[in-house]
Amino acid sequence: MVPRKMKEENRMSTKKTKKGQGGFTLIELLIVIGLMGALVALVLPKLTADREEAMGDVCDYNQAGTVRVLNQYADMFGKYPDGMHNGLDGTGSTASAIKGLPEAQHTNMIGQIDSTRYGLSTNEVASLNAAGIDTVAYGTGYQVTNLAAGVHVARCTTNWLDDTPAQYQFDGVTVADWETATGTPGWDTTNGTVVCLWITPTIDWSGGAGDNLDWTKGAVNYGISLEGQCPIPVSAASGEEVEFAYYMAYFKVYDEAPAVAARLIGTSCPECGVLNP
């Protein structure tokens, strides 16, 4: 028979055990939540920075792929792909910059559209034709027109960089010096005009057609996924997404007779900056 005193001690031990198995107090929970919040605050910026860095790497890779395609296309077919976009909503002397351009171009290109919008001369059309560029697209849909004297394109006369007032430089040479052939490579021996043509990486390689038929971020024909990456459709002033995905290709065009073929001097992306060809 168990003594009475021992029974009482067993009951007290059981009560203490049950009490020790209880949940966190409110203060303890608040401390845990505070610690978790502090950890999130420490880790989240690093994760965000890593994601942005990875996005930048993807953009650089895609832009390099665009340059590679342009150069390979020129090597294979002896011309650049046709149907690049002029960056305008039309082709005439009153055309405006297309909606949805990056902030720097809204500020500089649209703010100085009279100097940016540029009507091609007969010799400059011949220069682009000699490089295989016979048509340009314009507007938000795939509207295309044959190049002719008086067709307007975007001239790179203003500072289009997002974070600095400096001009673009290709191979260490400013756009202004490219136009006067000052300090440019040996193949460039005369004055010309630097024009910007917007290109989407959906080149049709069949038979060297090269038309840029898809100006959205949809199908990509040479194996680089661009969904959510650059080039991306940018936001219009209303905040709605504009289906216009591109990189910008800069060509030096010559006003010479006989014709001197236009030549690619570089590309750029509104997010990732300049890339030399």
UniProtKB/TrEMBL annotation:
Keyword terms, alphabetized: Membrane, Transmembrane, Transmembrane helix
Gene3D superfamilies linked to this entry: Glycoprotein, Type 4 Pilin
Transmembrane parts of this sequence: 21-44
Domain of life: Bacteria
Keyword Transmembrane (UniProt): yes
Protein name: Type II secretion system protein G
